[in-house]
Amino acid sequence: MSPRAGRAGHPPRTLAFVESPVQLLNVLEWAHLHGLRGAADPLPGADPLPSVPAQVRRTVAGDSQAGADLTVVVLSPTDPMTRGQLRRMADLARDEGHRVRWEDARGGLAAPFSTIGGLAGALRRADRIVMGDPFSRYVQLLLTITKARELVVVDDGTATMEFVAQLARGERLVRWHRKGGRPGARDLLFAPVSSSARRRLTPSARRRVEVFSSMPVTETPDGVTVTANDFSWTRARFGPPRITKGADMVGTSLVETGVVDGDRYLEAVRTLAKAHGATRYFAHRRESAEKLHRLAAETGLEIVRPDLPLELIARRGPIGRTVLSFPSTVVHTLPLALVGTGVRVAVCDIDPSWLTENASPRAQGFLSGVTGTARDVHRLAAVSPA
Length: 386
Known about the structure:
- This protein is an alpha/beta fold.
- It has 12 helices and 13 strands.
- It has helices spanning 21-33, 80-95, 111-125, 137-143, 159-169, 185-200, 232-237, 262-276, 289-299, 310-316, 330-337, 363-372; strands spanning 13-18, 69-75, 99-103, 128-131, 150-154, 208-213, 224-228, 243-250, 278-282, 302-304, 319-325, 344-348, 378-380.
- The chain has a 7-stranded parallel β-sheet with strand order 3-2-1-4-5-6-7, with helices on both faces.
- Helix 1 links the parallel strand 1 (13-18) and strand 2.
- Helix 1 packs parallel to helix 2 (80-95) and helix 8 (262-276) packs across helix 9.
- The protein is globular and about 55 Å long.
- The relative contact order is 0.12.
């Protein structure tokens, strides 16, 4: 980002909003790439992992923001697994010297009003806003308050691909798995805020916009700066991992989002695990306990609930020599995090017959695009039920 952000003679004041562990990971990757280094000492109780060695820290030539003021605001969700991963990631952010502000943003009816009111002053003072989910109604509402001249969108997985495409086409911001359905009452009520957020995320003479992503960006909006995320912080901070001889499988929340039928998914996992000798199943943080219990009972897989994003878990190891996945963010991020380790990432296509009757009309095309644009992965055909 431009060193001109902020007041003359002062480092830019950067406020980052995250709602998931992956978003916070990618804020750390963005800060590392742009040379933002916290000035504070690690807080007591922070993760006792070694700091990034000075010789591997990377600063963009002519764009150093050393000493820049970065505050990460965690808009915490309510589910325990996500909160646990976010707390671990918050410790890592503090260990890097960044400030972290934890907000129980969904802890009751009054929580949103208290959170927004408490953040209003910082939003107005911020020179730069970093966000992980431009589709979030919370983030869209916060964008109506800020006067920041620089906005940064860091990866929130496959949703980033859709966000960039919608911004390029001037469309309203709608998550891909909901696109094609009729807007509900809440969508209509929130439409003015969403429209305002889309205008603010459109570059202008007064506002710069950057997208920091490891995902393929095929439609770049005019004026938007796209910066590649190569997971250099992750590779410097963790690993290399110990590689096991077997295969591991990565779970997905496509059943929970109503895209894929639960029975078809279970059968596909069973068939894929048997064909490749997988022994462990790394659960997505949104997968239901009932579904995971059934997977363990009917497939024999060991269910692992990671305490950090999978990119960090895999980089720490141990990890299987082959990692099996369905179309998801990890088919793009794991090859980057594991580059040079010899681990093979294999992705299995989603058969159209697995989709539910309520799935978005464009679900199949979007999922195929996620798989087809992934680099350095081995593509597997959709498995057929026994």
